[in-house]
Amino acid sequence: MAQLIATSGDITRLTVDAIVNAANTSLLGGGGVDGAIHRAAGPELLGACEKLDGCSTGDAKATSGFRIPARWIFHAVGPVWRGGGHNEDELLASCYRRCLELAREHNARSIAFPAISTGVYGFPMKRAAEIALKTVRENVEASGVERVEFVCFNEETLSIYEQLLARD
Fold first, then answer.
1. How far apart are CA 125 and CA 92, in angstroms?
2. In sequence order, what DSSP letters do the residues of 110-158 get, joined into one string?
3. Catalytic one of 10, 17, 34, 89
């Protein structure tokens, strides 16, 4: 079984095979982790993303890591929270599944996820963390990934992930 850990810090500085970007459907940059990744990876990332022709909610696409330590960036488009009755849970789970599929395709053995959809997209943090952990646990073995880091942007998020990881 893969090692699953919660950490805090700057996802753009991690030495992992792949980091996940919480992207928007255009893939052309935005705020939060998306903007930070675009700034850290350099202008080449925007050029690569322009060639991808966007991405659907629940899906993910891969680019090189360019100027960051990770070899790959998997751009996952999570759902905007609209109260829970618009397939948000399944769309979020699909992001994590798709990133693990990309990890298998790109031979990534380590991957770092942000808390997809929990920033400006408004997904409730604990619910999102439960979906993330359940989906990763169910799909990580088939991916070949040996280490999964959930990179938390604040102490509240880190505490939720640590509690959920300790519970299982």
1. 12
2. EEEE--TT-STT---HHHHHHHHHHHHHHHHHHHT--EEEEEESSHHHH
3. 34
Contact between 102 and 62 (Cβ < 8 Å): yes
* Tokens coding 132: 């993330």
Give the separation between CA 58 and CA 99, rounded to whole angstroms.
Answer: 10
pLDDT of amino acid 36: 95
Q: What are phi and psi of 11, to 5 degrees?
A: -60, -25
The two tokens of residue 104 are 């298998």
Contact by Cβ (8 Å): 160, 125: yes
Amino acid identity, position 76: A
Q: What is the pLDDT along the chain (168 residues), one digit of tens a residue?
A: 899 999 999 999 999 999 999 999 999 999 899 999 999 999 999 999 999 999 999 999 999 999 999 999 999 999 999 999 999 999 999 999 999 999 999 999 999 999 999 999 999 999 999 999 999 999 999 999 999 999 999 999 999 999 999 986
Catalytic status, residue 59: no
CATH number for the domain running over 3-167? 3.40.220.10
